[in-house]
Amino acid sequence: MIGLSGDKKFVEQITAMEDDFGQWYTDVVKQAELVDYGSVRGTMIIKPYGFAIWENMKQAIDEKIKETGHTNVYFPLFIPESLLEKEKDHIEGFAPEVAWVTHGGDEALGERICVRPTSEALFCEYYSNNVHSYRDLPMLYNQWSNVVRWEKTTRPFLRSLEFLWQEGHTAHATYEEAAEETEKMLNMYADICENYLAMPVIKGRKTESEKFAGAEYTLTVESLMHDGRALQAGTSHNFGPGFAKAFNIKYLDEEGEEQYVHQTSWGVTTRLIGALIMVHGDNRGLVIPPRIAPTQAMIVPVAQHKEGVLDRAYDLRDQLKDIVRVDIDASDHSPGWKFNESEMKGYPVRIEIGPRDIEKEQVVLVRRDTGDKEFVAMNELESRLEALLHDIQQNLFNKALAHREEKTSTATSLASFKETLEDKGGFIKAMWCGDVECEENIREQTGATSRCIPFEQERIAKTCVSCGKDAQTLVYWARAY
């Protein structure tokens, strides 16, 4: 366990990530006041600060979605069992995680109702009733909602019974249009992860055994956490005409011929908050990238009981509020307590101002990512603060990228695969023959799963890392959340 400096009443100790990464994660989530546990096992109450982070992510994603021509809608939480069963692979893929409603009040229902694990069936029913002509296409929809999946093992943000997400659903006239949409939205997720969350990702395609139930193929962005485990940050699925055939979604083309539509879906969830914690956090708590931080700069008055200090601090907040997201800690806690809380919550910059600073017409800027301090004249603060936030954003990305590169290895035999995974963890690049039995053998032997077939292919060996036969493709493997 590591202690925090300053006021001893601030928080309990945080487990060092080097000692127990899982407990460190739980400690940070609780101490930074992101969530509380719900009364039902596996549910979470997202507290104001945690929800503010999600709102900033949501705003960035929503803007990108609307820029690409999509419209927000909302579909029901409940799905009749008969509707869900129309696409066999889809229901089989979700069956172990589905929550069912069997009673309405004291009355047994004539048909079980599924609590939404995902909304493909509902959108398909809508398309079947509303798509008639090629002029109705494409239909480009997005939904912000909650879903329920009855997970056996849960952890806040990473895996919970109920979580928040964005799910896009689109219908197109041709396979090519659907394929273009699938890739476009994956690239949007990569943009959000890298340029807003400062989290580098690998873009690629899921193997057949790892793709979304009912999809022709699934594209993914995969990220690497501080402990060397991977996390799927977002997925985009091309359904082709499969769902359309199951739900009878047809349209008349320009020649008056009936055709099946081609569909896609794509989504990210509050799991991104978990990724943010595990990519950037440290033993002092959260480290939030400026572009997504609810508070980009926290003003901490020092010796605020002295005349003029609080007034000057509030003046400073008013001066900066149109430039950055700024707040002030004017509580009765000691400066040491406030410094620790500022670090725990990951505010990108702390602005310290006390009587001596006021005399010298300066402030102290403290970076959360490096801990570096600098004195800045009041008349230079606005420009310096903007530049500093930009530098912190880039530094966090560069640091995460360097960590991923350091934790990415190659393996040409199963023995070296196992040894590397145990000693180093992280991503392992290895060749694969394409046989699902070899993929399963690697999982059973090592605990690693195929994360993606990267778009950027290399040929690091001629043979499959599992069976020794001719290799078809390079795959990224890792143990994952």
Topology record:
Blueprint: H1 21-31, E1 35-37, E2 44-46, H2 48-67, E3 71-73, E4 78-80, H3 81-84, H4 88-94, E5 99-104, E6 107-115, H5 120-130, E7 139-148, E8 162-172, H6 175-195, E9 202-205, E10 217-224, E11 230-240, H7 242-247, E12 250-252, E13 258-260, E14 262-269, H8 271-280, E15 297-301, H9 309-320, E16 326-328, H10 335-344, E17 349-353, H11 355-360, E18 362-367, E19 373-377, H12 381-406, E20 408-410, H13 414-423, E21 427-432, H14 436-446, E22 449-454, E23 473-478
Parallel strand pairs: 3-7, 15-16, 15-17, 20-21
Antiparallel strand pairs: 1-2, 4-6, 5-6, 7-8, 8-14, 9-10, 9-22, 10-11, 11-14, 12-13, 17-18, 18-19, 21-23, 22-23
